[in-house]
Design brief:
Length: 305
Amino acid sequence: MVHLVARAPAKVNLVLRVGRLRPDGYHEIESLMAPLDLCDRVEVRLHPGRRGGVACRVPGHPELDGEGNLAARAALALRRRLDRHDRCEIRIEKLVPVTAGLGGGSSDAAAVLRCLARAFGIRDRRLLEEVALAVGSDVPFFLGPGPAWVRGRGERLEPVDLPRLVALLAYPRSPALAVRAGDAYRWLDETRRGGPPPRRAIDRLRPFRSEMAANDLQVPCFTRHPDLHGLAHRLEVSGARAAIMSGSGPTVFGLFADRSAARAAIPAIAGERAGGETVDVFIVRTLRRMPGVSPWKLPRSASSP
């Protein structure tokens, strides 16, 4: 049995511009994405030579168990491309909030692809990227080296040397504030009856500054969910240099000068209620590179003297 472990980081969209609707039903995007040190833990057990399916368990989240999970779908897709039938068992310890605009499911899928690529000895980068894109638009980013400008549907990456940033994530637990990505893009299209407005080209070589933070999906989502706008405002008055929604939300994040400044803002945000329920807060930092894959090791607490 091959037993591998990978960390699956969350992400934020520091910039998200949405362009035209493509013939394939997706939108052209231009986004500066950065991985975070808030990570799920993904274990993959592969049984070479033992035929079987793909099992996926997410303790504490039974609704995510099974082959419908993006991580399981990634494993199934790669096995089909390679004509492999080895039994695969996936276990995911979730720390990244679910349906939060932080890319947790896509990151789990990429972590599984990384593990299986190592187990199968795959060197064909293009094959992995094709499988990743077939599973989800954000998955190719998590297969990349780290922060990047992401264009097209999500398949064109330009790595960026991004300094470490400190952010405070505000994730509203209320199901009433959950936003499906498809709805967010549809709401944006409804406000753009004549098509996307003309925009100045983004200078991707320009170093990122907090005043560049922007998200085209934010206005239609804030219009329908004023509580999210309230969270962004609370972050700004609590010292954030910029406060925007990540991806299609509902997580809103603020960029702070340092961890002390972010920590000082926690009481104002954690005391908020959005959609009638509490708001979870996380102080995070951006990563300069994606985590790697390592062999599983017996935890020290369970090892013999």
